[in-house]
Write a structure and sequence with these properties.
The structure holds 2 protein chains of 2 kinds. Chain A is α/β, with parallel strands linked by helices. Helices cover 31% and strands 16% of the residues of chain A. Chain A has 9 helices and 8 strands. In chain A, helix 1 packs antiparallel against helix 2 (23-35), helix 2 (23-35) runs antiparallel to helix 5 (139-149) and helix 4 crosses helix 9 (259-265). By secondary structure, chain B is an alpha/beta fold. Classes of the chains: A alpha/beta, B alpha/beta. Bound molecules: guanosine-5'-triphosphate and magnesium ion (MG).
């Protein structure tokens, strides 16, 4: 068994590397964050900091299984790369661990293969490993490594969720709830949970029947909530203004429709930080 | 392998992991393994089958889908920091594809990622692939238990 490099060694290696040579130490550091005990504290110490670093903007994409989260993250990233040639994007995609075997098939990447060779994109698949809130326990440490790699924006895809898995709102600056026709009706939107933490509601698969109805149902659910207090599970970043009423947008990840409107509502950093 | 016994009287047998009765209980060390299918033909039944048996043996499988280039596979493997890459092949171009994957791994300072192959591969080519540095080649008829235990065994020595 070969010796594993320490976290400070990997941090130094990453800092000293350039271009595609940064992928290897960044990938290994993420593994360290997931696998090693006290990894987050060790990383903070190695950086002589007080807190784990975070990318300037972290956007969550959550919603029911099959709503099109991965396809949408892929489409948003491709459009963002075009619009903002200065930005680097990390994609962290979470899929479920089997409670029976501890194994997992992490398949979100299948929808993102056109990004595989983009120098400004880093993609990592993560397993929930027993965490029930829709993400994984190591996410803050993984976001920190994404920052060290150079991410200006992180897009976090949760597992396919029900109504009560809202941990993404503890980690993301902005949580997008992805919905699609055929996965529920108007009554679902009255219930507690996801509806309360959404900063934007995205009706994906707008190329399909039922999308217009879903859009108007969502719109009235969102508007009827506009006087209720906005629930935030983490403070909004300084200077970031989110609209009082969360926007409801129709998009088609597959056909690339509505993406510009979606990009317009993202509070993108004014300039790259690296 | 002896039959797996239900140790706790409180747990009904049908709650036990599927994999257990076939002879490979949850793996001692969880590995990350990328499964991909390079080449132009679009059949990924074999790749999906292997992904499933590794998952059921307790490993994390990063499934990348069909028609991947060696460049895409290695870029994904490095970002995902996998312990192994398993490539399923049906077309005849395996020698060049595996050679390219191994070369790209070396260029990324990632030659410690083990490479496995599977598919309809003639015996002569199997020898050639092993000589190149592929760790094992699974041809049709290899049992699920054999595939899992061979991969686990190779990874345990690295
Ligand atoms: N018609 C149509 N199909 C779409 C669209 N977006 C995604 N799909 C399809 O919906 C299916 C599921 O897409 P994914 O992106 O894997 O969905 P997901 O929400 O990431 O799924 P999980 O990660 O398993 O929860 C795939 O077959 C996609 O091709 C869209 O805009 N229109
Ligand atoms: Mg997905």
């Amino acid at each position: 068994m070969s010796m594993q490099p320490t976290i400070p060694e990997l941090v130094a290696k990453l800092a000293a590397s350039e271009g595609t040579a940064r992928l290897r130490p960044a990938g290994r550091l993420i593994t360290a964050m997931v696998e090693r005990p006290n990894a987050a504290a060790t990383l903070v110490e190695a950086l002589n900091g007080r807190d784990l670093p975070r990318p300037p903007l972290v956007i969550g994409f959550t919603g029911a299984p099959g709503a099109g989260k991965s396809t949408l993250v892929d489409a948003v990233t491709a459009r963002l790369l075009e619009r903002r040639p200065d930005l680097r994007i990390a994609i962290l995609a979470v899929d479920p661990t089997s409670p029976f075997t501890g194994g997992a098939v992490l398949g979100d990447r299948v929808r993102m293969m056109r990004l595989a060779l983009e120098e400004r994109v880093f993609i990592r698949s993560l397993a929930t490993r027993g965490q029930l809130g829709g993400v994984c326990e190591a996410l803050p440490g993984v976001l920190a490594v994404a920052t060290l790699w150079g991410a200006d924006v992180a897009l976090v895809e949760t597992v396919g969720v029900g109504q009560s898995e809202i941990d993404i709102a503890r980690h993301a600056d902005m949580s997008c709830i992805v919905m699609a026709p055929g996965l529920g009706d108007g009554v679902q939107w009255l219930k507690a949970g996801l509806m309360e933490v959404g900063d934007a509601f995205l009706v994906n698969k707008c190329d399909r029947d039922g999308a217009t109805t879903l859009h108007s149902q969502l719109l009235s659910a969102v508007e009827s909530r506009q006087h209720a207090p906005r629930r935030r599970l983490r403070p909004a970043p300084v200077g970031m203004v989110l609209p009082q009423v969360p926007p409801v947008l129709s998009v088609s990840a597959e056909l690339g429709q509505g993406l510009d409107d979606l990009l317009d509502i993202l509070p993108l950093p004014a300039a790259a930080h690296h | 392998m002896s039959e797996v016994k239900n140790m706790s009287p409180d747990v009904p047998t049908f709650w036990l992991p599927d994999a257990a009765p076939q002879g490979h209980p949850a793996a001692p060390v969880r590995r990350r393994i990328l499964i991909g299918k390079p080449g132009l033909d679009g059949h990924d039944r074999g790749a999906k089958y292997v992904a499933q048996i590794l998952r059921d043996a307790g490993h994390e499988v990063i499934y990348t889908g069909i028609r991947r280039t060696p460049e895409q596979i290695v870029a994904a493997a490095v970002q995902e920091d996998v312990d192994a890459i398993g490539l399923s092949l049906l077309s005849g171009s395996h020698n060049a594809l595996f050679a390219r994957v191994l070369e790209l791994l070396r260029a990324q300072d990632a030659e410690d990622i083990a490479v496995f192959g599977g598919g309809v591969i003639p015996d002569d080519d199997v020898e050639r692939l092993l000589a190149l540095g592929v760790q094992a080649v699974f041809t049709p008829g290899t049992s699920a238990a054999e595939i899992v235990s061979r991969i686990e065994q190779v990874l345990s020595t690295r």
